[in-house]
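[step 3/7] fold_predict: job queued, chain A
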Amino acid sequence: MGIAALACGPAAAQAKTTRIVVSFTPGGPVDTVARTISEQLGKELGRTVIVDNKPGANGAIGAVDVAKSAPDGSTLWFTSVGAAAINASLYEKLSYDMQRDFAPVSLVVNNVEVLVVQANDPAKDAAEFVAATKRRAEPTAMASSGTGSIPHLAIEQLADATGAKLMHIPYKGAAPAITDLMGGQVGGFFGDVTGLLGYVQSGRLKPLGVASSKRHPSLPDVKTLEEQGIKGVDTNNWYALYAPAKTPASVIDALNKALRATLATPVVRDKLLKAGTEPAPSTPRELADLQARDADKWAKLIRAKNIKAD
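[step 4/7] structure written:
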């Protein structure tokens, strides 16, 4: 059954378009996943699904847009773990509240972080990279896509887990960080496999370790950090779908069902896997529980390191 038939009120019944608000710029990993699922999701819902990019303020602009929208399934928020489970610990005042303003629909994908260095770096794996940082007189500069981002928090976890001598250098997004890594201005970078796979496959960057409990299918020869004796680098830059608060349970259920069918569609699933991301649908409750666990985990690290948003 299409979502329009389940929504409340005559206006909702007439709605034929669902807008997915993405809190990031076009062409980035979150936007790419949103556009990969949008057409099939529309088919499952029986309506047109469009992607609307509203970047800025670490996801807050897109979040507020959705929070103020009608709770009828016509506007959804597609975001990463940062805006959903980290921002509340980074900012003293946040213009949205996850508990008050949103209803979880489903986890969409899981993203594994990989540690990469310049192609000519002598380190063969993460263990050698860590050892080299300890031998240097000065800390090794490590780029991130921004203060409080998953790549930044992975750097902090790596330092805590190994005693590596690292200096965090925040950038405004992954692209300039990767550019400076290839240029030698910084010595390493953690990033989503989906955003780094092309650089690794072309030989422009060298992968040293995957921050996951198992190897990544797109990088089967790259050992996990745990395999290298490095424990405690526990990152997952997941992306998930939310609706405005007070969206009827029947509409949430219809959205969840449609998303599951979308991610099970071979062409969609294959495209996501080839891009280096893992389809991972969930129930709304499972997403709420994951969000709560990660919010607590990252809050503890942010407090311990006294990390403040730029």
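[step 5/7] annotate
The chain has two domains: 3-111+237-305, 113-228.
Residues 3-111+237-305 form a domain with the D-Maltodextrin-Binding Protein; domain 2 fold (CATH 3.40.190.150).
exit 0
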